[in-house]
Design goal:
The complex is a heterodimer of chains A (360) and B (332). Chain A has 360 residues and is an alpha/beta fold. In chain A, 44% of the residues lie in helices and 8% in strands. Chain A has a five-stranded parallel beta sheet, sandwiched between helices. In chain A, helix 2 packs across helix 13. Chain A is globular and about 65 Å long. Chain B has two domains: 183 residues, Rossmann fold (3-Layer(aba) Sandwich); 135 residues, Rossmann fold. A five-stranded mixed beta sheet of chain B has the order 9-11-10-13-14, with helices on both faces. A four-stranded mixed beta sheet of chain B has the order 5-7-6-12. In chain B, strands 3-2-4 form a three-stranded parallel beta sheet, sandwiched between helices. The mean pLDDT of chain B is 97. In chain B, 37% of the residues lie in helices and 20% in strands. In chain B, helix 1 packs parallel to helix 7 and helix 10 packs across helix 11. The N and C termini of chain B lie far apart (45 Å). Chain B is α/β, with parallel strands linked by helices and 332 residues long. Chain B is globular and about 60 Å long. The chains are: A alpha/beta (360), B alpha/beta (332). Chains A and B meet through helix 6 and helix 7 of A and helix 3, helix 4 and helix 5 of B.
Amino acid sequence: MHAGPDPAISDEPPHAEGSAARAALSTGADAVALYRHMVALRLVSARMVDLQRSEKIAFHASCLGEEAVIAAAALAARPNDWVFPGAREWGAALVRGLPLANYMHHAFGSSADAAKGHSAPDHPPARAYRVAPASGVAGAHVPQAVGAAWAAKIKKEDVATIAIFGEGASSSGDFHNAVNFAGVFKPAVVFVCRNDGRERFASTRERAIAYGVASATVDGSDALAVLAVVRAALARAAEGKGATLVEAITHPIASGSPALARVPQEAWARGGVELLSLDHGANVDPIVRLRRVLESTQREKLLENGADEAIAREVRAAVDAAVSDAERAGPPAASTIFDDVYAEVPAHLRVQKESSPWRR
Amino acid sequence: MAQMNLVQAINDALRIEMKRDDRVVVMGEDVGRVGGVFRVTAGLWDEFGDDRVIDTPLSEGGILGTAIGMALYGLVPVPEIQFSDFIFPGYDQIVSELAKMRWRSGGEYAANMVIRTPVGGGIRGGLYHSQSPESLFIHVAGLKVVCPSNPHDAKGLLLASIRDPDPVLFFEPKRIYRAARGEVPEGDYTVDLSKASVVREVKESDAQKGRAVTILAWGAMLYEAISAAEQAAEQGIACEIVDLRTLWPLDVETIANSVKKTGRVIVVHEAPKTCGFGAELVALVNEHCFTSLEAPPVRVTGFDTPFPYTLEMDYLPLAHRILPAIVETARF
C-alpha cells in the first residue's frame, strides 16, 4: 500500500492535444450538449452578476469565460462518478442535472432552498446528482475528493471523483495534502485546475509531478479538448493507474470588466445572444470557439442557424422564472437555524430554539 | 468479565466494531504495522489488512480531509491523531468541513466519523504532547466531544460514538492509558453519549448538614478529584463527584441535580482556565442552580500558560490543589 511516488507516471500523461483522441472521445452529441451547458452557465452567471450588483443576492462567483472547463469536467464524469466543486464551479451541479430552480432558491436562501438558507449562494446541495457540497474555504474540498475516491477503491467500486478548483486553491495546504495522498494511495481521482495565471508560481502541473501524480495541460478555452483529457484521465483511473491532474489554462472575463459593465441588464433585455461572444477577437471565449467548431463540422452541421437565439431564449425564460419564484418564496422560518446542526436537535439547542424571541 | 486497561478496552471496541461493520476504517500515523504510538490499534492491521487499517503520511490535514471524503462516500472512518496537540494542522477540516457538512447541505450530506486522539499531560511529554484542547471543539457547533475516564466507559462510549450519526472527537486521557484498569464486559455494549456518571455520591442527609461539595471532572483528573475527596472526607467534608464522560452535548440535568443538593461546585480540568470548559460549566450552574448556591463556583485548572515540561506536576490541577479549594468552598 505504501508504494512511494512513481516518477514514471509523470511521463505518461493522457494526451490532450491530438485530434485523434478528441474524435474518439467526443461524439457530435457530446459537443452539442457541451455547448448548451456552456451557454446556460454563461447566461446564468451573467444574470447572477447583475443580481449581485442590484443586491438581490449577496454573492456570486462568476464563471464567465471559464464555462468550458467546468461544463466539460462535469460532463466527462460517468453517472456513478462524483464531482467535488468549489464555489466558482457551481455550474457543475447544473450540468449534472440540478434543476435551475433549486440553484436559484439556494442563491436566494429562500424557504425552498435545500440548504434552508444556511450557506452562501453558489454552494448548492446536490447529492442526488452526486455533487459534493462546496466549501467556502478554497481548496478544502480537494482532499475530500481524494478520500471519496479512496473509499470507492476500498469498496472495490468503479467510481471516480473529479475535484475542480482554481489555481489559487492549488497554493492551499489542502491541495498539497490531497495530491500527496493521491500520489501514495492512487485512488481514482481527477484534479481539474482552472489556471488563469493570476497566482505567481510555476504551473500547478509541476506540483502534481512532484507528488508522482500524472498530469496534463490543456487549453481551457477548448471545451472538446478539456472533455477529451478529463475522459482520458478517468479511463486511466478506471484501469487502476490512479490520479491525474489536468491543468486547464483559462481566460476568465472579469465581472467588473468594461465588456460586462454595460452588458448584463441591457443584453439580457435584448435576448442575451450578445453575451455569447465576449472575447473581442482574442479567440479565447470558449463559447465562440466551440460554436465555430460546431458550425464548421464537415460531416454534419451540428448547430443550426439561429440556434443561439433559441437556446438563449430557453435559458433566459428558465432563469427569469427561477428568479421570480425564488424572490416570491421568501426566507425560511427562523427556527430552521437549528435544523441539521446535529442529526437530532440536542437539549441545549432545543432550549435556544424555544426560548428565543424571533423578529417575525 | 475481563480486566483491561484503557488501551485494551479501546482496542477491543475497535475490533468489535470493525468485525460488525465493514464500513469502519482505521487510519493514521503508524496505526497499522506499528499499532499506534500507544499501541491502541495493535493487531488490527494483522486482522483487517491494508484497506481497513491504513498507515498514512504524516499530515493531519490530509488524514482528516481524506477521512471526511471517505465518510461522505459512506465509510465510517476512525482516524487517529497521534497526539491531540497535533490536531491543529487538521483543525480547519474539522471546524469548517466536518462540523458544518450536515448543516450547510440541509441534511443531504453528513460525515459520520470518530476522531480518536490522546489528550492531557503527566507523561513528561512537554508542551506539544500534553495539551487539552477540548473546549476548542466544544465551541464548534456540530461536533460531539467525549472523554472517558475508565476502561468500561471507554469501550462503551467508543462503540456508541462510532454508531452515532454525528462526528465525534474522542479524547483519550493518555496519562491513565495503562494505569486505569477495571472490569470490562466482553462483547458488544454501548454507554449512552450525553449521560454523565455520578462516581461518588453524597447522601441527601449529609448534604443538609451544609458540608458537601460537587466536583465536576473528566478523564485523568477524575482520579485527582477522588483523591482530594477522600482527604476532604477526613475533615468531614462530603464530595459528590460527577464524571462528565461526554463533554458535549452536556448532561446538564445530572450536574444541576447534584449542585442543587450540595449547593457548592468545583470544576477541575487540565486545560487553561480562561475560556476553558469550566467557564461554560460554571455559567450553566449559575443559570440552572443560582438560588441553590451557598458558595461561589470554583475552577481548579491548568494555568493560562503553555504546558510546561519539567514543571508539569506543578501545572496540573492535582489533588494538592483541589483539596484546598474543597475546604474553602465548604467553609464559605
